[in-house]
Amino acid sequence: MRQAGRYLPEFREVRASHEFFEVCRTPDLAMEVTLQPIRRYTGLLDASIIFSDILVVPQAMGMEVEMNPGPHFPDPLNTPDDISKLSPSVDVNKELKYVFDAITQTRKGLNGEVPLIGFCGAPWTLFSYMVEGGGTKTFQKSKTWLFKYPEESKKLLLRISDVCVDFLVGQAKAGAQLLQVFDSWAGELSPYDFSEFALPSLQAISSGVRSKLAAEGIPVPPLILFAKGANHALPLLAEQGGYDVLGIDWCIDPVEARRLVGDKVALQGNMDPNVLYGGKDAIERTVKRMCEGFRKDRGTKGWICNLGHGITPGVDTEDLRWFLECVHKYSRN
Ligand code: CP3
């Protein structure tokens, strides 16, 4: 996830001499940092995720985004009139070609060792960055939009969905073997507002990606949705979301999550990443309990082991190795 690289000294070394978006835009560098954890934890990881960021989509739509050290938009969308500042149409094959090139090159670099995940941000999460101009604790500006200008908000959300569809289709064509959508701020919406604003744009992405790839005769890779904090929406998303896998954070018990989604989707998650600060015993205990919760006989659709959010910068690389070893040990049966 967004902070995932920073616990690795080899990542910090690359970043010492290259700006964040420079790494995203340079396929050699993006491949290098994508491969770093795969190399360090040989045989322990089952997939890699392309190095990029969800904010490349607002950039492709014509917005300026800096990373210093968090995201900053010098010219955010203050009112619906500002929508006219966005590019009227976005050619992702031009604007985001660097991501596609990084994916194709990284697939070659991985040489079949593990599959490569492509991703994008969900419209509601991207909308909130584009309107707030960066991170926020209150969501005051983005909620003002939703409640004062609901129709304009929905239009903008669907306009972002259109770009996400083309972006994910392009990533699949470039070689991505799974596609994940990150709705990091899904949990900021009430269940009603989630269905009203976030869900339609998430459905537009899953159905758009499926139909566009099918029209070109390209197999559709598994689609993963991580709607952080929106565990209330698990039954709805399993039923109507159009995704094969739902990611979950640590605020729901695996047994309960499986009960809510039935056998409709696979689950991905969900250890609290902060357990990685608790030392080897805490990590082992928690992994054991997580594996027991996601046990195979609780559902036929399977489980992808993951953390419930990104790895934070202070995590000890050997504690992370221990986490991975425990996962292999306790998930075997
Ligand atoms: O795991 C990976 O390294 C894969 C690449 C990846 C990044 N960002 C690189 C990154 C992925 C999958 C993301 C997704 C992302 N980006 C999300 C969704 C997942 C989540 O974390 O909720 C979001 C919300 C963003 C936006 C973003 N990017 C923020 C808010 C920040 C600042 C984080 C902070 O705490 O300061 C980033 C920066 C970012 N993206 C970093 C990395 C490795 C760290 C910045 C750096 O290297 O200086």
Automatic annotation (TrEMBL):
Gene3D superfamilies the record matches: 3.20.20.210
Keyword match Cytoplasm: yes
Alphabetized PANTHER family for the sequence: METHYLTETRAHYDROFOLATE:HOMOCYSTEINE METHYLTRANSFERASE RELATED (PTHR21091), UROPORPHYRINOGEN DECARBOXYLASE (PTHR21091:SF169)
Domain Uroporphyrinogen decarboxylase (URO-D): from-to ranges: 117-133
Main location: cytoplasm
Family from the record: Belongs to the uroporphyrinogen decarboxylase family.
Any one GO MF annotation of this record: uroporphyrinogen decarboxylase activity
Pathway where it operates: Porphyrin-containing compound metabolism; protoporphyrin-IX biosynthesis; coproporphyrinogen-III from 5-aminolevulinate: step 4/4
Chain ranges passing through the membrane: none
Lineage, uppermost ranks: Eukaryota, Fungi, Dikarya, Basidiomycota, Agaricomycotina
Organism: Pleurotus ostreatus
GO BP of this protein: protoporphyrinogen IX biosynthetic process
Record Pfam families: URO-D (PF01208)
Subcellular location: Cytoplasm
GO CC, alphabetical: cytosol
InterPro entries xref list: UROD/MetE-like_sf, Uroporphyrinogen_deCO2ase_HemE, Uroporphyrinogen_deCOase
Cytoplasm recorded as keyword: yes
Protein name: Uroporphyrinogen decarboxylase
